[in-house]
C-alpha cells in the first residue's frame, strides 16, 4: 500500500482519530483489568508490578498520554499551519504506544520492553509537536512542550524505579506524571474553557479573568508540584493546595454563566474543572484528615482528568470531522452522567460510608467502564468515517 493511500485512510488522517480511539478502548480495557484484579481477585503479575502500581501507571502514561498525544497532534496544525504526523508515521507512533501497553504481559523482559517502547513514543511525540512549533517560532507554546518532555522524563523515572535502579523512581514517576497532567489540563483549560463558553452561548457573555490570578496560580502550582513530588513536606504542600483551591475557585466562579448548564459539552468541562478545584481542597484538608489522601487523588483523576478528557475528545472529534460542536448527541448526557457518578462514588462514599469501602471502589470502576463503553459505541463510527466537507 502506498504511503499516500495510507494517509487517505480516515483513521490515519489526523492524530486525534487513532489516539482518541485507542484511549477510549484502553479506558474500558484497563479499568476492566483493574476491576478483575481488585474486585474479583484475579491474580495478575505485570512483570513484577503490583496491580495497583500497574493501574496507576497506565491511567497516567497509558490512557491520559494517548489523549494528550491525540490532542496535541491535532492542535499544533491549528496553531502553526503546519501538518503533523499522518499515514505511516502516525501509525508508527501509535504502534510504539501500543507496544508499551502490551509489553507488560510479556514474560521475562517485558518491563524493559515497555520502558523502551514508552521512551521511544515520548521522544517521537515530542519531536512531532516541537518541530512545527519551532519552525513557526511559536515559543508561547514552550510551556506545553516542556510538560510533554517532563512527562517522558517522569515515565523514565518510573521504569528506573520499577527495574530497581532508582529508589524513589516509582513515586517520582507516578506522582510527577500525575501532577504534570493536572498542570497541563489547568494550562489548557485557562485557554479553552472561557473561549468555548463565550462561543457556545447565544448572546454576549462577560467572563472574568485575571492576569494576577493566572500568574499566582502558576507559581503556586510549581511550588506545590516540587514539594508534593520530591520532598516529605506534606504540610507545606497541603497549605499550597489550599491556596490553589482558593485561586482556581475564584477563576471558576468568574467563568460561570447560567446558559452553560443547557449544553453538555460546556457543563462537563465546567464540572471537570470543579473536580480539580475539589481535589485541591481535599489535598489541603488531608493535613488534618489523612483518610482524604485517596479521595483527593481520585477527585483529580476520575472527576478532573476523566471528565475533562472525555468531554474534550468528543468536542475535538466533532469539530475536526466537520460536525457542529453544538450537535445534539443522545449518548453524551448518558456517558457524562455515568462518569460524574463514578467520580462522586469514588470520592464521597468511601469518606461518608467507610464500611462499604470495597464496594464503592468496585461500583466506581463499573461506572467508569459503562461511561467509556457508552462513548465507544457511538464514537467508533465518528472516527472511522471521512470528515464532512
Keywords, please?
389 residues; mainly alpha; Cytochrome C Oxidase, Chain A; 14 helices
Could you characterize the architecture of this molecule?
The protein is mainly alpha-helical. It has a single domain, classed as Cytochrome C Oxidase, Chain A. It is 75% helix and 0% strand. Helix 9 packs antiparallel against helix 10.
And the CATH topology?
Cytochrome C Oxidase, Chain A
CATH hierarchy class name: Mainly Alpha
CATH architecture: Up-down Bundle
The low-confidence parts are none
The topology string of helices and strands comes to: HHHHHHHHHHHHHH
Number of strands: 0
Q: Kindly state the mean pLDDT as a whole number?
A: 91
Shape: globular
In CATH, what is the homologous superfamily?
A: Cytochrome c oxidase-like, subunit I domain
The structural class is mainly alpha
User: In DSSP terms, counting alpha (H) and pi (I) runs of 4 or more, how many helices?
Assistant: 14
Strand content: under 5%
The CA-CA distance between the termini, in Å, is 26 Å
What fraction, in percent, of the residue positions are helical? over 70%
